[in-house]
Amino acid sequence: MSSVFHHNWKGQAGQILRQAWPVLVGSWAGIAFGVLDTVMVGHSSAIDLQAMGLGVSIYITVFIGLMGVIHALIPIIAQQFGARRLTEVGRWWGQGVWLALLLTLIGTLGLAFPDIWLRWSGDLSPEVHERVTWYLRSLILALPAALVFRTIYCLGTATSHPKAVMLINLFSVAFKALFNWVLIFGKLGLPAMGAVGSGLATTVVSWLMLAAGLWLLRADRYYQPFSLKLGLPTWAAQKELLRLGLPMGGSYLIEICAFSFMALLVAREGVFASGAHQIMANLAAVCFMVPMAVGVAAASVSAQAIGAGQFHRARHVGMLSLAIVLAGVALTITLLVLLRPSLANAYTDDPDVALLALLLLQLLPFFHFCDAFQCLISYLLRAYKVAFVPMLLQFFALSVLGLGGGWWFGFGPGAGALDSIIQWLAPGAPLGAASLWTMASLGLGASALLLLFWYSHILRLYNPARRKTCTHQ
């Protein structure tokens, strides 16, 4: 590749954005499941909203951790695609499907015993406990379809062909809304099931999405050169996937566990605080999709460049993605500040939940700023198959400083120490929940700085002469 092309910043930015926007739309469609659940269950009852918030936090912890392992396919396939080893792309996809089926067994165990998780929430009412239990049992059936579908997502993303998967995600939102309406509120002669109904709706739609994805792989000629086949699982391929996927999944799990345990701890402040926290978490997830989409696209383009031996291009893609995310963060924070009252009221009819959400949302701009950059840099590192050290850095920043500090200052021995700061940042917000979100923001900021340091270190090491030096760090 000529040096002129390497410095064609506009062209490379366009390539990132062309791949990022379908990922973003598809991700927003996926997160729309949570938005629909929160809004529709929120209009059912406060008890159902608390049960769903707790159930979602547990399910997402299990699913995201396992999904992160499967996402090892993205840099592996992208590097094979960049090197034009097309049949290897198909072989690796088949190995990813076997990995997804294996991980389903592990995830089932995590969902089958909710008491392990709920003991962190203090004394829950029997009604909430029962609804959380049945919600998770309904989602056990969704897990295999959802994980196998992620392999199709990885294939499309790694080969710069994400639009078809985006369309499947978009259509799935309409089906999710329909099944939610029927099962949550008890339409068409069925009983009203509240939070449990939202879990059953997710299960039905997950299998419809998998069926559509498998049909796509057979019908779209784009995938024919890859010779897609399931084949037999091989230890060498599974070992390679796990060597990269386990620390990647660990990073996903560390991040999502921090926020899942936040939901479990906030439940101690009651139904209204728990509902407000769920609204805050849902909006944070919606905002997160912008840097995540840029990160996925930039990591895919970088990995393709690495596979093709174009190391300078990979570096330039990383720098451009940082600038793109900065612009996206500025726009997102502006909208959050302007629309905060409308956002809080859109989620619930309960005035107490809406008021606490309005107050808690004052912390979201600061949180999003830190979250966006630590997300992007972690994806850029994965393009280089660097995952282990980032996992350790994220564990310290998110679990020890973020979650541990949030518990200490919100519910532990240091409770009350942050009250004056919180009253300045978010006057009137519930102190326990606000302490958790404040420390989570600081943890994400520390994670971003540590990951940026390691990314700079990898860029100094990663050149053709020393390529093996930084593999799987």
From TrEMBL:
N-terminal signal peptide: none
The keyword Methyltransferase belongs to this UniProt entry's keyword annotation: no
Transmembrane stretches, start-end: 20-36, 56-77, 97-114, 134-153, 165-186, 192-217, 249-267, 279-305, 317-339, 359-381, 388-411, 431-455
Pfam families according to UniProt: MatE
Keywords assigned by UniProt, alphabetized: Membrane, Transmembrane, Transmembrane helix, Transport
PANTHER family associated with the record: FMN_FAD EXPORTER YEEO-RELATED, MULTIDRUG RESISTANCE PROTEIN NORM-RELATED
Protein's recorded name: MATE family efflux transporter
Species annotation: Alcaligenes ammonioxydans
